[in-house]
TrEMBL record:
Protein name: Helix-turn-helix transcriptional regulator
Domain HTH cro/C1-type: 6-64
A Pfam entry, by short name: HTH_3
Species of origin: Lysobacter arvi
C-alpha cells in the first residue's frame, strides 16, 4: 500500500521521481533511483526518510502508511480540516460507527444527484 500512496501523492503534487528525490535532499540522480525503488517496492523506506517524504509531499505520514484507500482518503481529509473540524469529526466518526442506520442515511444522501443532495443537506441543517 505504501508504494501506491507514494505514487499517488507524488503525482498529485506533479513531481517527477527526480524532483521528489531532489527536494528530499537526496540529489537528482540518487533521489530518482531511490524514489523509483520505493515505488516498485524494491527498497523499504526508513523512518527518517519517511518523515522527509511526507513533509515534501505535504501529506501526513499516516496517509502513506494507511492500510487501504478509504483509510488513506479519510486521513488526508482529516489533515486538511482545521482543528475545530477535526475535533468534531473525531467525535462524529465513532457515533456513526455505533449508529449504522444514521450512517446509512447519510451515505444515501451523499449518493443523490448534486441538486437534490444540496436541498437535502440544507433541510438537514435547518432541522437544528
Amino acid at each position: 500500500m505504501f508504494a501506491a500512496r507514494l505514487l499517488q501523492a507524488r503525482q498529485l503534487r506533479g513531481l517527477s521521481q527526480r524532483a521528489l528525490g531532489d527536494r528530499m535532499g537526496l540529489g537528482k540522480d540518487k533521489g530518482s533511483s531511490r524514489i523509483n525503488r520505493y515505488e516498485h517496492q524494491v527498497t523499504a523506506i526508513g523512518f527518517d526518510n519517511l518523515g522527509a517524504l511526507a513533509q515534501v509531499l505535504d501529506v501526513p505520514v499516516s496517509y502513506l502508511l494507511a492500510d487501504d484507500a478509504a483509510m488513506a482518503d479519510a486521513i488526508l481529509a482529516l489533515s486538511q480540516a482545521d482543528e475545530g473540524q477535526r475535533d468534531a469529526l473525531a467525535a462524529l466518526i465513532p457515533a456513526l460507527v455505533q449508529e449504522p442506520a444514521l450512517l446509512s442515511r447519510l451515505v444515501k444522501l451523499l449518493q443523490l444527484p448534486k441538486r437534490e443532495q444540496s436541498k437535502a443537506l440544507k433541510a438537514l441543517v435547518q432541522e437544528d
